[in-house]
């Protein structure tokens, strides 16, 4: 059951079958109807309507054309028309795998099925996965800003120009930021709108596969930055998919992060769990990522999102402020990542020092391999740039270096 549940990305969304028929499946509760619209039917919301199933699910089967070709050709632009309160709203499927900006600057789904699928290479040496006696040396990278020419760089240019340099400098791991499609480029990818779509700003999906293939050929691990904590609150994506504040998110004030201007997932919702856990497996199985850096974990762990908390005692970690729904989700995510891809690396961006964050799940921990010590770079930059050697405060340095609790 878990296997099928976490492979839901193969069923949900819009899929081309071997006989050139097309199957569409969505979860969209509380609406009057769904239909597929695009250039192929002159954007007519009455042309290709979904059938309503149980539990808020909708399904559409489209047979091949008379000549045997699929209705949706590679590169065709389309959206899903959602009807609610007798109004039609054009939306992106939560499960869409490729999104582009149209000339009107509105995001549209693109049916991406090249005639020849990407052929992964067999590498004689698999990427180095460290054991407990060795450490990762991580090169954090944003593909778009990696060019010295002052332009938005591409996946392929990064692979050809940067990977040899990264390898030569002694790194054994690349952490890629801003891969999932996001509405605002300046957010560094932290306001995701389409979780299954690699950003089209840097190239096609196969270009990202080429980058990862080249990195593996150089013996490098590739980690994906995963913002499962705060998707963007614009309608040009997952937000308001059901034409209200609910869907995959909490429908009340708990569903909004006021400081980050973003939405917050309802981790108790079965369909949210399906979506997020399938998302992790999708990136590992379709793109061969070796693991993840989970962004904003502190914000997930506490109802206060860690804002204004001092974390001076164990009471600050284990109390009513702890968001147990998020703790359970993160633990389950780590369990499934290791179950289906043993040896994967998971890193938590977490600054509170939550005890047992990186202890094994069977010991009661959450199962992360590493905790990203966010404050260390800031501390060293501040000291080296702005303080004389004799002004260094050793007590402050030790406190920052030891910012974690026993059983960490």
TrEMBL record:
It comes from the Eukaryota. Residues 153-405 form the Glycosyl hydrolase family 13 catalytic domain. GO terms for biological process: glycogen biosynthetic process. It holds the Pfam family CBM_48. Coiled coil: none annotated. GO terms for molecular function: 1,4-alpha-glucan branching enzyme activity; hydrolase activity, hydrolyzing O-glycosyl compounds. Signal peptide: none annotated. InterPro entries: GH, GH13_cat_dom, Glyco_hydro_13_N, Ig_E-set. One of its GO terms (cellular component) is cytoplasm. This is Glycosyl hydrolase family 13 catalytic domain-containing protein. It comes from Panagrolaimus superbus.
């Amino acid at each position: 059951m878990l296997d099928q549940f976490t492979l839901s990305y193969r069923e949900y969304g819009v899929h081309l079958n071997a006989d050139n028929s097309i199957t569409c499946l969505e979860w969209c509760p509380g609406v009057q109807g769904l239909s597929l619209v695009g250039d192929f039917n002159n954007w007519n919301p009455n042309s290709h309507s979904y059938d309503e199933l149980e539990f808020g699910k909708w399904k559409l089967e489209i047979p091949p054309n008379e000549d045997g070709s699929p209705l949706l050709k590679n590169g065709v632009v389309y959206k899903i028309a959602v009807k609610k309160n007798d109004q039609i709203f054009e939306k992106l499927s939560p499960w869409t795998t490729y999104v582009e900006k149209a000339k009107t600057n509105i995001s549209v789904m693109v049916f991406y099925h090249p005639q020849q699928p990407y052929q992964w290479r067999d590498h004689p040496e698999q990427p180095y996965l460290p054991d407990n006696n060795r450490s990762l040396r991580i090169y954090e990278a944003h593909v778009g800003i990696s060019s010295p020419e002052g332009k938005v760089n591409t996946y392929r240019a990064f692979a050809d120009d940067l990977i040899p340099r990264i390898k030569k400098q002694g790194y054994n791991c690349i952490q890629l930021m801003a891969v999932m499609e996001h509405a605002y480029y300046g957010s560094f990818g932290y306001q995701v709108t389409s979780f299954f779509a690699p950003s089209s700003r840097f190239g096609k999906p196969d270009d990202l596969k080429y980058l990862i293939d080249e990195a593996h050929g150089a013996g490098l691990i590739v980690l994906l930055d995963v913002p499962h904590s705060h998707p963007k609150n614009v309608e040009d994506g997952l937000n308001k998919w059901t034409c209200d504040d609910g869907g995959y998110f909490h429908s009340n004030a708990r569903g909004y992060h006021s400081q980050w201007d973003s939405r917050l997932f309802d981790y108790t919702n079965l369909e949210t769990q399906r979506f997020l856990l399938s998302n992790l497996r999708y990136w590992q199985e379709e793109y061969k990522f070796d693991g993840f850096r989970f962004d904003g974990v502190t914000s997930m762990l506490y109802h206060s999102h860690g804002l204004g908390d001092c974390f001076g005692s164990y009471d600050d970690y284990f109390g009513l402020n702890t968001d147990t729904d998020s703790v359970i989700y993160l633990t389950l995510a780590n369990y499934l990542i290791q179950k289906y891809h043993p040896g994967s690396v998971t890193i938590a961006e977490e600054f509170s020092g939550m005890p047992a964050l990186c202890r094994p799940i069977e010991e009661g921990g959450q199962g992360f391999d590493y905790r990203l010590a966010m404050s260390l770079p800031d501390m060293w930059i501040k000291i080296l740039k702005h303080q004389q050697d004799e002004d260094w405060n050793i007590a402050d340095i030790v406190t920052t270096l030891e910012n974690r609790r026993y059983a960490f």
